[in-house]
Amino acid sequence: MMIKDKNKRKNQILEAAFKVFVNKGYSRTTMDDIVNSSGFSKGALYHYYKSKKDLFLSLIDHWETYTFENFYNKESKQSSASEILRHFGQNVLKTLENKKHAYIAEVEFWSLSNYDKDIKKRSQHLYDKLLNLFEKVVHKGIKEGEFKKLDIRKTSMLILAIFQGVNWFVVFNEKSISPKSYIEDSIELIIKSISK
Predict the structure, then answer these.
(1) Measuring CA to CA, which residue among 168, 151, 142 is closest to residue 80?
(2) What is the DSSP letter of 147?
(3) C-alpha–C-alpha distance, residues 93 and 184, integer Å
(4) Is 169 in contact with 182 (CB distance < 8 Å)?
(5) Please, are residues 42 and 32 in contact by the beta-carbon 8 Å criterion?
(6) Do 166 and 92 touch, CB atoms closer than 8 A?
(7) Tens of pLDDT along 25-48?
(8) DSSP three-state, residue 57
(9) What is the crossing angle of helices 101-113 and 2-24, to 10°?
(10) Could you tell me where the DSSP H helices lie in 39-178?
(11) CB count, 10 Å around CB of 1?
(12) In Å, what is the CA distance from 37 to each residue of 14, 20, 21, 57, 169?
C-alpha cells in the first residue's frame, strides 16, 4: 500500500511539473513554481526529487507513459502491422486533442538535449525505445508477408519522423492542413510504399 501511495504522490508531482515546465520552460521554472502547482511542500518535493534537473529527467520517462498507451503488446499479434501503425496514429491524434502540452514538452526535451548530456542521454533512451517498437512492427509486417523486404531501421526512423511531424501543429499552429489529415494520409502513404 505504501508503494502505491508513493507512486501516486510522485505522479501528482510529475503532473504538476509537466504543466509548469510546458508553460514556463525549463530555464524559467523553479521548484517553488512546482510546489505551488502541486500543493506539496518543498520538503515533500525534495524527498522525491533532489533537484529541478532530477525532476525533469523523471518527467522524460513519465512523458512516455503519459502520452502513449502500449501500442505494441500481446493483442497486437491479432492485428496486421498496418493496423498497428494506424492505431498508433489514432493514439497520436487523441493525445494531440486531449494532451497537447505533451508535445510542447517533447520540443522542450529536444531543445535541452543540445545543452545537457544527461537530458540527451535520457531522451535518446526514450527515442531508442520508440524506434525499437516501430522496428518490431515493421519486422512483423515483413515476416507475415505484408511488407516488402526492406531496411527495418531506416523504415522505422521514417515512421517515427512522420509522427514527430505533429509537433509542427503544436509549435507553429499550422492551419492549412489538419493534424488528422496529415497523420492519416502520411500513414497511408508509408504503408502503400512498403506494402508488397
Answers:
(1) 142
(2) B
(3) 9
(4) yes
(5) yes
(6) yes
(7) 888 889 999 999 988 899 988 889
(8) helix
(9) 80
(10) 42-48, 52-67, 81-98, 101-113, 117-143, 152-164, 167-171
(11) 5
(12) 10, 7, 11, 18, 27
Give the cell for residue 146: 505484408
Quick one: which of 163, 193, 145 has its CA closest to 102? Answer: 163
Cell 502500449 maps to which residue?
70
- Integer Cα distance of 14 and 126 in angstroms: 17
Cell matching residue 196: 508488397
Q: Using CA atoms, how far apart are residues 79 and 179, in angstroms rounded to an integer?
A: 24
* Tens-place pLDDT, residues 119-163: 888 888 888 988 999 999 999 999 999 999 999 999 999 999 998
Cell of 61: 520517462
Q: Which three cell numbers stand for residue 109?
A: 526535451
Query: What's the CA gap between 182 and 92, in Å, rounded?
Result: 11
From residue 185, alpha-carbon distances to 13, 34, 77, 192 in Å are: 38, 39, 24, 10
Q: How many residues does the chain have?
A: 196
C-alpha closest to that of 57 among 133, 96, 131, 112: 112
Provide Rg for the chain, Cα atoms: 19
Q: What CA–CA distance (Å, rounded) separates 188 from 23? A: 34
What predicted TM-score, i.e. pTM, was given to this entire model?
Answer: 0.80
